[in-house]
Amino acid sequence: MAKKTRRQLLRTECEHLCRDIVFERDGHRCVRCGATTRTAAKLDWSHLIRRSRCTRLICDPDNSVVHCRDCHYFHGANEGMSMLQIAVLRPAQCLRLVEKYDQSVRESNKNSGYVPISFWEEQLERLKDLTT
Ligand SMILES: [Zn+2]
């Protein structure tokens, strides 16, 4: 197996940390139906703006919630309605997310979509700050 690059290692570390932060924040409970690991087969780290659409927001806690598997599928299949529900439940989080999305689109256009390694280093520091 190929050795992971520093960029991949940083991103993986950010992903694990962000997932932990979001599960802790959401109380290990699906934000849509309230399911826990006792009542649902599995709880997922679910992205509001999908990963493929915005690399810079993959590891931002404002861009993810805990969903049970069923609600995660619902989110994927009914993105608009699901986003509306989350915006009602979490207005402050969604307002920050909208601002961050606008910012990352501007950055992405400026850098032709390239995410520099310094971004991941800074993101890791931001996430670590959230856990202390
Ligand atoms: Zn659910």
The count of DSSP E runs of length 2 or more, i.e. the number of strands, is 2
Which compounds are bound in this model?
A: zinc ion
Strand arrangement, major sheet: 1-2
Encode the helix/strand succession as letters: HEEHHHH
Enumerate how many helices there are, as a single number. 5
Strand content: 5-15%
As a percent range, the share of helical residues equals 55-70%
**Helix and strand composition category:** mainly alpha
The CA-CA distance between the termini, in Å, is: 35 Å
Task: Categorize the overall geometry.
Answer: globular
Rg, alpha carbons: 15 Å
Number of domains: 1
Main sheet attributes: strand count, strand direction, barrel closure: 2 strands, antiparallel
Subunit arrangement of the protein: single chain
Low-confidence stretches: none
Mean pLDDT: 94
Quick structural overview:
The protein is mainly α. The protein is 57% helix and 8% strand.
